[in-house]
Design brief:
The chain is α+β, with helices and mostly antiparallel strands and 664 residues long. It is built from 13 helices and 40 strands. Strands 2, 3, 4, 5, 6, 7, 12, 15, 18, 19 and 22 form an 11-stranded antiparallel beta sheet that branches. The longest helix has 16 residues. It is globular, with a radius of gyration of 25 Å. The two termini are 34 Å apart.
Length: 664
């Protein structure tokens, strides 16, 4: 990593010290200004250009015995620096990131420090313990006071709950409610990222990064004011095995605190990201930048790629002479399909281990893993295993050692459904032990990513998304199409999504039905192709069955060729909830994906990122003339890229467009 750190006098950083009571920090481009008031409490204000983003908002942390960091605290000194460095990001949407910010650290007599950072795209702050003593954190107060009752896209915890306490157990698979700050349900929790629409077309995204040994931050509105306040799951005191197939740990009682932490703890970053155009939200690096650097010295074994997945399509292979299901014949067929199409992995989802035993060493008699691993190796296809949380957690070292020795390459761990301190710690422990045995991890049934994929790059993907699996059981009341053009501007700010796209059965708004055994997607075929470009997903599923993909080989060839990690990413255009267009490049080949909501739409895509010299061809997949009725209707064309570097594309209702661009 190339690193340039300049420690300078405060004036050179546009940081003003107003006696002992006021501090100020500006971003490198001067557009962000954080003003910090140090009085009986600590309050900060954020301004972007001429717009007040946050009114004075309290920062405080409550410790045991009534001690507060941030109330009556004694300020001692300030230190400032500018950092400009290059972060290498090998399994990400770009292979390197410029990390450029101004930082102000405020030290207090009570053995803590507040660190503020100002980037050109947003600001962040965190508490840091400077003492040696262990801490008991009873609560943290992160307040976000807005100037008026702005509209908001809020991801409420999904489900029907009677209490706040019951909402701490949830799957983090949400849709978005469009409302206003003052109309947020005071009895509901929401998780981050969360989006507020402020003045002059700007958007504010609230998020967190570097969440380790601490609970995740929920947000709520307790009083109907134009503000949001933090909420945290208290630390579990007792748990009991239960939940889905006895694979979960259910919290039965809690402590009166949210975390126990050692001295010198760096607490999570609280992030306020601001965009002037919606498309900027779809290509933010701020959470990745703020995460702790990689702790792995050797990453040569980490192999992103595509996965042939059986669960969504219900093991739905046809025209074979055996009964499909959880058995070796079926998985050999998936391996054959993966091998034929250059797909790196096949996953054995839930069912390969004996049900309700929470024991990954009890394999069902229909499965011979050694035979499947050997068969896959002969076809250059590796295997990944699904694991319920408790079955993995109770004996993770032995599980990882055993299956890595057999030749398994990773685990998809599911049904955590919590983000209290204990569960956050599980994610780091699992990542660490899995890396020891060179195993990938795909976290399902879990909270949003907060940068662990930078710290442990073997954590290759995350769910925490309302993905295509919802199509198996949800009826016509679900509007997945609008979600698809909302989520990239909000949830995807946090990191990659295991959305599990790739349906070859596609349905218009009128034709869609939720059918478990033969599921379909909402929207057009080209929408499914575009999602492989738009959605960030280093370990990317092909959700449909080999029969359907073989019958649609042209689409399968296109999907299989799309990279899962990238050298460059450019957000071309977009508006939250309406449409999005993204371009990504790998090895000098560009891919572009665009999607619309239920409105048919024409877009002019600006491809000026291509070299001025040379001629380019585009392999274009676009909605057919009848795609609004027959969602699988599409056309493929090879066209020259005009010298103007402008391409007009037309998308049907619920439609999309996907293209591959290469030099000739």
């Amino acid at each position: 990593m190339k690193n340039l750190v300049l420690t300078a006098i405060l004036s050179s950083l546009a940081i003003s010290l107003w006696g002992q009571k006021k501090q100020q920090l500006k971003s490198p481009d001067g557009k962000f200004e954080i003003s910090i008031s140090l009085d009986q409490d600590i309050r900060y204000t954020v301004i972007h250009e001429s717009d007040t983003v946050l009114l004075p908002s309290i920062i405080a942390m409550e410790l045991k015995n009534g001690i507060f960091w941030g109330k009556g605290s004694t300020f001692q000194k300030a230190k400032a620096k500018t950092v400009k460095e290059e972060i290498v990001s090998p399994f990400y949407k770009r292979n390197k990131i410029t990390d450029y910010y101004n930082e102000l650290s405020l030290f207090f007599k009570e053995d803590f420090c507040l660190v503020f950072r100002a980037y050109n795209e947003g600001v962040a702050y965190r508490f840091v313990s400077t003492g040696e003593e262990d801490l008991i954190v009873r609560n943290e107060h992160a307040i976000f006071n807005f100037t008026k009752n702005f509209p908001v896209h809020i991801p409420y915890v999904k489900g029907v709950f009677n209490t706040i306490e019951s909402q701490y157990f949830n799957s983090f698979e949400n849709e978005y409610t469009y409302t206003s700050l003052a109309q947020i349900d005071t009895n509901k929790l929401a998780f981050t990222p969360l989006l507020i629409h402020i003045n002059n077309g700007k958007k504010v995204c609230l998020a967190e990064s570097d969440l380790e040994n601490y609970p995740g931050m929920y947000l709520r509105n307790r009083d109907g004011s134009p503000a949001l306040q933090s909420d945290f799951a208290p630390s579990p005191k007792t748990t009991v095995q239960g939940g889905h197939n006895d694979l979960q740990q259910l919290v039965t009682s809690r402590h009166s605190y949210i975390a126990k932490c050692p001295g010198k703890t760096k607490f999570p970053w609280r992030i306020i990201l601001v965009s002037t155009m919606d498309k900027e939200l779809a290509d933010s690096d701020l959470i990745y930048k703020l995460a702790s650097p990689s702790r792995l010295s050797d990453i040569s074994w980490i192999k992103p790629g595509k996965v042939a997945w059986e669960w969504w399509n219900h093991w739905g292979i046809s025209h074979v002479d055996f009964e499909t299901g959880i058995n070796n014949n079926t998985y050999k067929a998936y391996i054959d399909f993966a091998s034929k199409n250059g797909i790196a992995y096949v996953i054995l989802d839930e069912g390969w281990a004996v049900n309700r035993q929470a024991d990954l060493f009890q394999v069902v008699p229909e499965i011979d893993l050694k035979e499947l691993i050997a068969y896959g190796a002969s076809k250059n296809v590796d295997l990944i295993l699904w694991a319920g949380y408790y079955a993995f957690e109770r004996d993770m070292e032995r599980v990882c050692k055993h299956y890595a020795a057999m030749g398994i390459k990773g685990f998809k761990i599911d049904f955590m459904d919590r983000d209290d301190q204990e569960m956050v710690n599980f994610h780091y422990k699992a990542a660490d032990i899995a890396s020891k045995y060179k195993l990938l991890l795909d976290f399902h049934g879990t909270y949003k990513p907060t940068g662990i994929n930078r710290t442990f790059p073997n954590v290759i993907n995350f769910e925490a998304v309302h993905g295509l699996e919802q199509m198996k059981w949800t009826g016509i009341e679900l509007d997945q199409v609008t979600y698809d053009v909302t989520m990239p501007f909000i949830r995807m700010i946090a990191g990659p999504v295991d959305y599990t796209q790739g349906a070859m059965r596609n349905a218009s708004k009128k034709a869609y039905r939720g059918i478990n055994e033969e599921p379909m997607s909402q929207g057009t075929r080209c929408r499914q192709l575009a999602e492989y470009v738009v959605f960030e997903s280093p370990l990317n599923m092909l959700c449909d069955n080999p029969t359907n993909y073989t019958n649609e080989q042209q689409c399968t060839d296109f999907i299989a060729a799309i990279p899962t990690v990238w050298d460059q990413t450019i957000a071309l255009d977009g508006e939250v909830g309406k449409y999005i267009a993204i371009a990504r490049e790998k090895n000098d080949i560009w891919y572009v994906g665009a999607m619309t909501n239920w409105d048919a739409r024409s877009l002019e895509l600006d491809l000026s990122f291509l070299d001025d010299e040379g001629n380019y061809m585009v392999e274009l997949y676009h909605d057919g003339k009848n795609a609004s009725r027959i969602a699988s209707d599409y056309r493929r064309e090879n066209l020259p890229v005009p010298a103007s570097r402008k391409i007009q594309v037309n998308m049907a209702s619920g439609g999309g467009v996907a293209m591959k661009i290469f030099k000739i």
